[in-house]
Design a protein that fits this description.
The protein has 152 residues and is α+β, with helices and mostly antiparallel strands. The chain is 53% helix and 17% strand. It has 6 helices and 5 strands; from the N terminus they run αβββααααββα.
Length: 152
């Protein structure tokens, strides 16, 4: 998995669903809080050192989650890397059902679960709505591939 190449570093705060939409994020997909950034946050820079340290910590945490949740199935490196990438991006709660499927040996079900995790919630004038995050479509195809192709 080419996770570091896939992840673009932003040395500032930004709204992950576009200006005024999605969640306030910084660095390499680090959630600051739910909902758009404030004007003050949008003007705050983030150091390259902080971005890289936080990214490394988040990857290590995603690796721990995968190792803790997938105990009964042997994973090849490509599968492990895909689950780390997915867990990094979806969060532990967002990855729970997929990790449970993998642990039970339901690789096809896990592939479907990964592929369907392409929505984000954005704010609108009338509240919030779930929309497809186009950037997640190719990412999820890459992450689900090792499980679609598995002979399990």
């Amino acid at each position: 998995m080419r996770m570091r190449q896939r992840e673009t570093a932003q040395y500032r705060y930004y709204d992950d669903g576009g200006p005024g939409r999605g969640n306030c994020t910084w660095g390499i997909g680090t959630l600051a809080h739910r909902g758009p950034c404030t004007t003050e946050e949008l003007s705050m820079p983030v150091s390259a050192e902080k971005v890289e340290i936080t990214f490394s910590q988040k990857v290590a945490e995603a690796e721990r989650v995968v190792r803790k949740r997938v105990l009964r199935q042997a994973l090849n490196q490509e599968q492990f890397d895909a689950l780390v990438s997915f867990t990094f991006n979806a969060g532990q709660r967002g990855a729970e059902s997929v990790l449970a499927k993998v642990d039970k040996g339901d690789f096809k079900g896990a592939a479907v679960g990964i592929s369907r995790t392409i929505y984000i919630t954005v704010r609108t004038r009338k509240g919030t709505k779930r929309v497809v995050a186009r950037g997640l479509i190719s990412r999820r195809a890459e992450e689900s591939a090792p499980f679609r192709e598995a002979k399990n």
